[in-house]
Write a structure and sequence with these properties.
This protein has 219 residues and is of the alpha/beta class. The protein contains seven helices and seven strands; from the N terminus they run E-H-H-H-E-E-E-E-H-E-E-H-H-H. Strands 1, 2, 3, 4, 5, 6 and 7 form a seven-stranded mixed beta sheet that branches. A hairpin with a 2-residue loop joins strand 2 and strand 3. The longest helix is centred in the last third of the chain and has 20 residues. The protein is globular, with a radius of gyration of 19 Å. About 7% of the residues have low confidence. It is an enzyme of class 3 (hydrolase). Its cofactor is [4Fe-4S] cluster; Mg(2+); Mn(2+); iron-sulfur cluster.
């Protein structure tokens, strides 16, 4: 039996990329509400702002392009906003208001830089696909990641393995959020590009929360 999360228990969809990258980073942002911007997050935010144009829909032949589409999944317990959702003409798709024919939804997520060696971007895109499938009542099988540095799209297939990975991650997010616990720090090469490295203090191996660390330092 699947869980249906109420509004009060919904978590930010964008957080799944942080959770997949580092659970401590996710906890610092979403539990302790710490955030520090570096050049990567700034450039990424600028790209999102260029992609985001609320309530804007553009027709490109057999494709409708919608920006800043609100998303929600009750089964995952996530909410957020899609950078871009394309609707492609497809006789097996859904009916859209004031648009003739049927359409299939196709999420496109914009990212700064280039494809990652891990799956953090892929699981975020798949989570968007699951949201769209629930919202429109029709399967969403694929989506694209667009990287600013390569200026190319990377297609992603939402197979069962990837969907299960997303479900496992979101279940872990809800469990950790409910406990209100920040995992201990473990330093790795990935920490160099983390926007929270100066707050996280990974080289100390600290098991304390950042809030407790700061409280003690200021006494």
């Amino acid at each position: 039996m699947s869980i249906s999360y109420p509004d009060s228990d919904l978590l930010m969809l964008s957080g799944i990329q942080h959770f997949a990258f580092c659970r401590r980073q996710w906890a610092l942002i979403h539990i302790e509400q710490q955030w520090q911007e570096n050049v990567l997050t700034f450039s990424g935010r600028e790209m999102h702002e260029r992609a985001d144009d609320p309530f804007f829909t553009e027709a490109r032949g057999a494709v409708l392009v919608t920006r800043s589409l609100p998303l929600v999944s009750r089964t995952l317990g996530l909410y957020g906003v899609a950078d871009v959702v394309e609707f492609h003409r497809d006789e097996t798709g859904i009916v859209l208001k004031d648009r003739p024919g049927r359409w299939r939804s196709y999420p496109v997520e914009y990212k700064y830089g280039q494809p990652k060696i891990d799956d953090r971007d892929i699981v975020q895109l798949c989570a968007q696909g699951i949201c769209l499938a629930e919202m429109f009542g029709t399967p969403v099988a694929t989506g694209d990641l667009f990287y600013g540095r390569t200026r190319r799209r990377q297609p992603v297939e939402f197979d069962d393995s990837l969907r299960n990975r997303v479900r496992e991650l979101t279940a872990g997010m809800h469990e950790l959020f409910e406990k209100g616990v920040t995992p201990s720090a473990e330093y790795s090469a990935a920490c160099k590009s983390c926007s929270l490295v100066e707050i996280c203090l990974p080289k100390t191996g600290s098991r304390r929360s950042v809030r407790r660390y700061l409280d003690e330092a200021l006494r």
